[in-house]
Amino acid sequence: MYAVETHELRKDYAGFHALNGVELRLDAGLIHALVGPNGAGKTSLFNLLTGFQTPTSGRILLLGRDTTGLPPHEIARRGVARSFQITSLFEQLTVLEHAALALQSRTGLGFRFWSDDAALHRFDARARELLAEVGLAGSAARPVGQLPYGQKRALELALALAIEPELLLLDEPTAGMGVEDVQRTIELIARVRAGRTVVLVEHNMGVVGQLADNVIVLQQGRVIAEGPYEAVRTQPAVIAAYLGDVDA
User: Fold this and answer.
1) How far apart, in Å, are the Cα atoms of 151 and each of 72, 130, 200, 204, 214?
2) Which domain holds residue 134?
3) What gap in Å lies between CA 199 and CA 187, rounded to an integer?
4) pLDDT (tens digit, 9 = 90+) per residue, 189-238?
């Protein structure tokens, strides 16, 4: 069983082919990186995989089950979590409250901000475990608005992990980070990959080289190369057309 499988996946926007017959067979338990220039179709592919958009045609199977056309919440229930390139957090809530709400969302309570304190605090123990997993144990009581950017991205990863995903999709996890935060994020992803499949969109080829077991290169909505980083990075057509200086 593949973690991600697509068959002739297409997405058109007013005649523009964002994805044009994408065929993927991504093995479970690995870190897969999607790379390519802006407009190659990476974000469109993520949106289709997670139900934020529906394909023009084709099929999607995640973790062995057909999810084509399902809405995001149904796909999440099947063990798929996604982080976004742009942070979307509540500045006034604490780090711990964010984690507790993410855990609460998996229950019948959903995202009920008006629930009494006792209901929310029942998730505190597991919430603290999640925060420890991403290096935020010491920041549990801080309002999110006080966190530096790198820690906000780490919190978003904790929120994704709250649904205990088998498949984790990360959209530009190191975008906008300084060198130290990038390295911390690489180490964090390497830790949380245990027992799950990770698919990430990433422009930083240094990150791809350190993390990815498999690299998929997109151009104009098509897969034009796939394989281990060292094999893909040496293909002249890939270097010239998409990656530029791969050591950058």
Assistant:
1) 25, 13, 19, 19, 27
2) 85-151
3) 16
4) 999 899 999 999 998 889 999 999 999 999 889 998 899 998 988 877 67
